[in-house]
Amino acid sequence: MMATRQPWAVVEIVGPDGTVLGTIVADGPGHPDLAAVDEMARVQLMAKRLGGRAVVKTASPFFLELLDLAGLAVEVEGQPEHGKNGCRIEERVDPGDPAP
């Protein structure tokens, strides 16, 4: 008998113009593990290479907790980006900083 697959997260790849380029559903038997964190990191890297970003539309609290524990910052729809230990990540420009 096969284990029942549990939904962990739905992630959208959003292009630089805001267009949704694709949707990824992360799921598996039981709770997510570090392999799921690795896949999320790969999805983020792919999105950045396309000039866009990965946006978590929905996710289980356990998956978000695991991402936070691993130190992988994720963008959750409707929430500011969070990094390790739930710290908010905000970009700031100080006077004298070189222009991007």
Largest sheet at a glance?
4 strands, mixed
Number of helical stretches of at least 4 residues = 2
Q: Which strand order does the major sheet show?
A: 2-1-3-4
Low-confidence stretches: 82-93
Structural commentary:
With 100 residues, the protein is of the alpha+beta class. It has a domain of 68 residues. Helices cover 26% and strands 29% of the residues. It is built from 2 helices and 4 strands. Strands 2-1-3-4 form a 4-stranded mixed beta sheet, covered by helices on one side. A hairpin with a 5-residue loop joins β1 and β2. The chain is globular and about 60 Å long.
In short:
The chain has 100 residues and is of the alpha+beta class. The protein has 2 helices and 4 strands, in the order E-E-H-E-H-E.
Task: Give me some keywords for this one.
100 residues, alpha+beta, 4-stranded mixed β-sheet, 2 helices, 29% strand
